[in-house]
Give the backbone structure.
Amino acid sequence: MPALAASRQVAGVAPGPGARYVHLAAAAATLVLAAEPPVVHVREAAGWIEDFTRQHAGIRFTLAAYTTTRFVLGAARGCRVRVDGRELAPTATAGDDPTYELPAFATTTTPRRYLVDVRCAAVSASG
């Protein structure tokens, strides 16, 4: 399992058929493998991730796309999401994995960039 807190420029991980998919936020990413409690991460994103940073109480990244987009967070219990400075509520939730849909816009030749800031409440080691 990827140790997301110890890895660099690793935005998240998602289960796949027979394997796990690791979302890298930069070409120079460093993946550390170890057992760790789950931390908030990007499980899915329709677009690409830029400027990813992991902070003590969450993550921050830019999500870029040419059309309407969405993203899913993993291990996101107790987290609040702000996009471009505005609070965003999930459109659906499966377990601790909420789905967020970003505002619609017309397709252009220039991608739309959204600044996503995820802040999570401290979770004790017991749960």
Residues 62 and 115 are 5 Å apart (CA to CA). Residues 10-120 form one domain.
